[in-house]
Amino acid sequence: MRENSPDPISGVETVLEAIRKHAKGWLAKVILGLIAVTFALFGIDSYMSGDRSGGVVAEVGKVGITREELTREIQAQSDRLRESLGPAFDPSMTETAAFRKQVLDSLIERKALLLEAEKLKFLAPDSYVAAAIGQIPAFQQDGKFSPQRYEAILRQNGRTPASFENELRQAFMLEGVTSPVTLAAFNATTTLEQVARLVAQQREISWVDLPVASVADEVKVTPADVERHYAANKPAFTEPEQIRAEYVVLDAAALVAGISVSEQAVRDYYAANAAQFGQPEQRSASHILIAADKDSDAATRAKAKAKATALMETLRKQPERFGELARSTSQDPGSAEQDGSLGSFGRGMMVKPFEDAVFAMKPKEIRGPVESDFGYHIIRLDSIEPGKAAPLAEVRAAIVDELRKQQAQKTFADLADNFSNLVYENAESLQPAAAAAKLTVQQSGWMNAKAAPPPFDNPALSAALFSPESIKSRQNTEAIEIKPGTLVAARVVEHRAARLRPLSEVSAEIERTMRAEQTAQLLAKKAEATIKSLQDGKESGLDWTAFQVVGRQPGASLDAAGVKAVFRANAEKTPAYTGFARPDGSYRIVRVTRVVEPASLDPMLMESIGSGVMQAQQRADMKALIALVTAGHKVKIQPNAIEGRED
């Protein structure tokens, strides 16, 4: 049973189709209706306006973006880049003004889309948010939603139910605005076939390589050339400022391993939280629903109640007709097909009036009409399955793990204030703070701000440690939270100023670079002349390889650059000639003698291409939509909104 508004929004139906797809009858659709009251549900203003605690750096219509919100998003996107790129991640890329401007632009676009969703009334009802949360496996215990587990997991990740719900609501709203664009995209069969034929096309080629040695005598690099290059490119030969640091990490997660839990503590926790373990009492019920929305007028609800009352009178006399009447009159189609059966459920899974009635009934009792926001119910209690607790032995490991985490969080909280104070009070040394927390003062290697390893890649810690004051004073930074549950304090122990490497140190490197550049230029020029001669019909006695048929997939014969060159060559008239530089410095001239068209198109290839073309079209349409929506709102960016390096 869905919670409807007076003016149902078809867009919301589309947004939440994925949820409804897995729903089974009235129970699944109102599941967690009661759970919703345990969440800190917010109105439109709270999840549109965001955190107002920081200074506003930009405004989109009536909505502000705070510096704190921007900082959080910069950190979030930096973390995603770090995770996706792995060792290739360069922290300096996230410190540039360009990157920060890109993040701010994405926030502006997001706010504009949310305002559009608000205008179109694409709002996610509380029941949908609760149902969506209840279907997330991480929040379930024994296949059912657990409010305690939900709150514990969010707490461990530094989140609150309120913030998590806000994110879900915003996701639903954004989906409501953007899904028509993605759903409207379609592929033209003719276009797909043309693309597929081009992708499947092969070409017959042969080639000849011009080696580096063929132009070696023409390469000239003098000492004067090296000096001029050095003078014109001094920034490239300047080593950035570097430091070595010592640091201390106070990490809640690291405290877990050192915590022991007594058997008595395990038993006490098990006794105090028995409801969390095992299977609580379950009741199986059936119902007949006469629908009447909570916002319906009095006459409509009165009519529905009268119909439900009449049904109840019939069932008092003929209780055996319950299944028959459920099939013919119930307005909950999901359960009507099952003679009104809702299956088994525990407390906290149904809306309150319905639940109160079911858990006050005796088996086989029929009661009604029971009023809820969805209308009037005639309820039959089919059976009761008593609750049963899981044996302590089965849940001991989980209890020990939870108690360790709780103790670690408490220990961390107790240590954190003292740790921060000792770092501040003993500015010349980290040893007192480390000793008090039983931690080790660690040493870093030489590093610079653009390529600092963890934990110094955290923007706040990096800014504090590489500040002129920290470098000059060699005093402790404050204890900085680099992520929830982790504090780091550091101090500079050694410093190297930025240094221009002398010419004597880099001259050999410069000469090698200049020779390689000259060689590549001379080879390309020689290859271009050869290709021009071949195109004019003048065979130069070149030693061509045997013919090969190649496709667009790079391989031993052709790398990615070679594939691009071969398939870009105009082969309307053959032979056609092209060329490309190879990784070893040589230059390959390629002769295309035949185009091999595919005899038939692979269905899997067509499907793959269709998916790629569809995604490209959706991205283009989405970009246009975002630009259109954003242009419809007045955007104001503060002059000091972006802080970062100018590259």
UniProtKB/TrEMBL annotation:
It comes from the Bacteria. It comes from Thiobacillus denitrificans (strain ATCC 25259 / T1). Residues 280-383 form the PpiC domain. It is found in: Cell inner membrane. It is a single-pass type II membrane protein. Belongs to the PpiD chaperone family. GO terms for cellular component: plasma membrane. Its main location: membrane. The chain crosses the membrane at residues 26-44. GO terms for molecular function: peptidyl-prolyl cis-trans isomerase activity. This is Periplasmic chaperone PpiD. Keywords: Cell inner membrane, Cell membrane, Chaperone, Isomerase, Membrane, Rotamase, Transmembrane, Transmembrane helix. InterPro entries: PPIase_dom_sf (IPR046357), PPIase_PpiC (IPR000297), PpiD_chaperone (IPR052029), Trigger_fact/SurA_dom_sf (IPR027304). Residues 323-343 are annotated as: Disordered.
